[in-house]
Write a structure and sequence with these properties.
alpha/beta, four-stranded parallel sheet
Length: 368
Amino acid sequence: MASKFAKAASVARRAGFDGVEVEAAHGLLVDEFLSPLANKRTDEYGGSVENRARFAKLVIDNIKQACGSNFTVTARLGVIDYVEGGVEPATDGLELAKEFERYGYAALHADVGFGDKEKRLEPMAYPQAWRSDLAKMLKDGGINIPVIGGAVRMALVPPGKSRMDWLVDYYTTILADLQVDIRTGVEANADIIMREHPDEVILAIGSDPLVPPVKGINGKNVVIYPAVLASSYPQNERVVVGGGGLVGSETALYLAENHNDVTIIEMLPDIAMGMEPISKKYLLRELEDHHVAIFRSSRIKELTENSVMFEKDGEIHELTFDHFVVAFGGKSRTFASLPVPTHVIGDAVRVGKLVEAVRDGYAAGMDT
């Protein structure tokens, strides 16, 4: 089995890479040897730390034999198991790292072994470099080779979403490098577009908040979610968020973290439907920890100045509020027909996720 690692490393070397990182974390094959949670062997590959690390030695020895002694091999090493009876960082985690250093691994990426998937594939909301304490522990314990810790903006405002600013930074830089003419503060109407004499047009005009025809929806204490995310919102208020999709759920958490008493009313059986499962689990836990009340399968019937009536299980309920936030998602914007080939992308086609908008933009660019 170790020879298969060498075969994969050889492919990488032929492709021009100077080294590879061996996956020895996340409960995968090498980590199954390292952790007492999985390794129950009674031969030379089980029991002591040295024995449990023996397979990792076979792996690097095979890679070096196949690719040469100067070929760099590092390891992503599981130095903590978030399961009782597993690897403990300060004991066998450190000892495993010492064995890896002794075997010739050039650097270690301190990471998680067995445990909840959230710890192994953390949601965006986790703080940057949240595992850096593991790297510090290894260095303080006498590991001499380099050790790194795992790293894990309106859209940037909700809790845990600030890292999306990286995408903004990327496009700002790359578009400047490509000398793309960007004009801000200009309404892109049909007349202005056609003055440029385009051969083709890509419309990425996005979406507007969806405001349903509910009685009282235009009341003085009703706000649309972009206004909440774009400004400093009052604290210590009773806030009802209408809509429990991704927008509504994240807006609710943002309000709750700003010391408001928050309730979500959602007409569907669940909130944040369609959200990636690990991130959704984290979001639901955060909502619970911030005491956000959630009414599912509930249809809003009417708003008054300071209350909302909604139907659930055939009964009418009423909640009072200081503010009601409209967060039912969005609806695609429309645009006048243009006399040239036109590609409509992103939310202008269907309200979706950022990754879908990026994919649409890439596809349209390749087709033009």
